Amino acid sequence: MATYEPKNILITGAAGFIAFHVANRLSSPNLKFVKGDIRSADLVNYLLITESIDTIMHFAAQTHVDKSFDNSFEFTKNNIYGTHVLLEACKVTGQIRRFIHVSTDEVYGETEEDAVVGNDEALQLLPTNPYSATKAGAEMLVMDYGRSYGLPVITTRGNNVYGPNQFLEKLIPKFILLAMRGQPLPIHGDGSNVRSYLYCEDVAEAFEVILHKGGSWSCLQHQDQKGMESD
User: Fold this and answer.
1) Is pLDDT at 120 greater than 70 in this prediction?
2) Which of 3, 68, 106, 150 is spaced 20 to 30 A from 133 at the CA atom?
3) Higher model confidence: residue 167 or residue 85?
4) What angle, rounded to 10 degrees, do the helices at 41-50 and 82-93 form?
5) Across the strands, what pairs with 100?
6) Is the Cβ–Cβ distance between 107 and 85 less than 8 Å?
7) Which residue blocks in the chain are alpha helix, DSSP H?
8) What is the helix, strand, coil percentage profile of the chain, to 5?
9) Which residues is 102 bridged to in the sheet?
10) What Rg value do the Cα atoms of the chain yield, rounded?
């Protein structure tokens, strides 16, 4: 497989946890940080044109499952509408050679307890919370722009990630802080559920491989947990 070499990359959500580590790994002397809203069509179009963007790694999203139950509209606005704005800008400018959409294995719903190797990429999507439902919706838009407009898309479905600089609301840093304070550690269910985790630097390395060697119109995932929801 030929190695893909991007010229100018737009990494959305680069101030977030995973995208921060990816940006650090891919950093160059020409790195530029732009604070903005993914839902702003004017801003997105302006950046694609003025920065001659030919590659997008789309990480920007609302990601916390518990918060999605309290304010699901914000998840729809950011995860679905924000993705749609970005895709439409790609269609209008016609200059994107690779679009990497970062989704989640949460779109499958819970893995069966007796599953051996997790979920197959072709399985039906059965999200079980507002967060995963909006990520599944965003995936459908990405798939459509690939099929309808020929946008060269790659979708990834990773699972839980941990490491330095993670938000304190996430499971591992949250439990560490609670334990340091001598406070109870809240666990959903009866405690029998299992989670899989990936270290942030390993994830950043994987995205570097996907950037250069991933095949367009593909869906890539990491096998996940049994009967457990992600952070």
Assistant:
1) no
2) 150
3) 85
4) 40
5) 57, 154
6) no
7) 17-26, 41-50, 65-70, 72-75, 82-93, 130-149, 171-180, 200-213
8) 40, 15, 45
9) 156
10) 18
Helices H, strands E: what count in the chain? 8, 7
Q: How far apart are CA 36 and CA 72, in angstroms?
A: 21
Sign of dihedral through CA atoms 67, 71, 102, 51?
negative
pLDDT tens readout for residues 64-115 = 787 888 889 999 999 999 999 999 999 999 999 999 999 998 898 876 665 5
Distances 2 to 203, 207, 211, 213, 216 between C-alpha atoms, Å: 22, 17, 12, 7, 12
The active-site residue out of 108, 131, 224, 229 is 131
Burial of 3 (0-12, 13-18, 19+ CB in 10 A): exposed
Q: Which of 106, 139, 224, 231 is catalytic?
A: 106
Of 4, 74, 105, 162, the active-site residue reads 105
Residues 13 and 59 sit within 8 Å (Cβ to Cβ):
yes
Instruction: Tell me the per-residue pLDDT of 52-71, one tens digit each, with 9 for 90 and over.
Output: 999 999 999 998 787 888 88
Verify whether residue 202 is a known catalytic residue.
no
Q: 8 Cβ partners below 8 Å, 6+ apart? A: 51, 52, 53, 54, 55
**Is residue 105 flagged as an active site residue?**
yes
pTM over the 0.85 mark: yes
pLDDT category, 230, cuts 50, 70, 90?
very low
Is 110 marked active-site? no
What are the φ and ψ backbone dihedral angles of 204, each rounded to 5 degrees? -60, -40
Distances in Å between the Cα of 39 and the Cα atoms of 8, 62, 205 are 21, 13, 28
* Statement: residue 207 has pLDDT above 70: yes
